[in-house]
Amino acid sequence: MTNGHLDIISRASSLYDEVVVAVLINKNKKSLFTVDERADMISEVTKDYGNVRVDKFYGLTVDYCREQNIPVIVRGLRAVSDYEYELQMAQMNHRIAGIETLFMATNPEYAFLSSSLMKEVVKFGGDISGLVPDSVHDRLVERLRETG
Predict the structure, then answer these.
(1) What is the rounded distance in angstroms from the CA atom of residue 13 to the CA atom of residue 103?
(2) Which residues bind substrate (predicted)?
(3) Is 100 annotated as a binding residue?
(4) What percent of the chain clears pLDDT 90, i.e. is strictly above it?
C-alpha cells in the first residue's frame, strides 16, 4: 500500500457511497505479506474514511463484484503504459460481467510509485518515508529485515 493507492482510495471515497478495497487471495503468488496482513494494513490506513470497507476474495474480480453488487471498479493509471493493459482488462470485465471501470489518473506526486519499487528501495537501505503510510513503512522495514 503506497500513498498512490491511498490517494486513489481517498478520491474514490468522495465519489461513491461505499468503496470496497478487495484484496485478492492468490495462492500461486508468494507475497511479502499474507492476505490477512495486507487487509489489516489497508484497514488501518483507511480507518478514517467512513465509507471504505476492506474484504478478501479468491477468483475473478468481476465475479466478486457481481456477488457483492459492486457496479464499478476504480483503477489508478500512473502512465500511458498502464493504459493498454488496463483497457483490455476493463473491456473484458465489461464483456463477461457488465462491470464498468473508472480510470483515475494518478496524482503526479505519486506517479512513479509501485509496491515492488518500494520494496526494492527498502531492501537496499533506502528511505521511503512519505511515499507510503507510516504504519506500512514500519511493517515493510521490519519484514524485510526479517527476511534479509
Answers:
(1) 14
(2) 29, 61, 75
(3) no
(4) 86
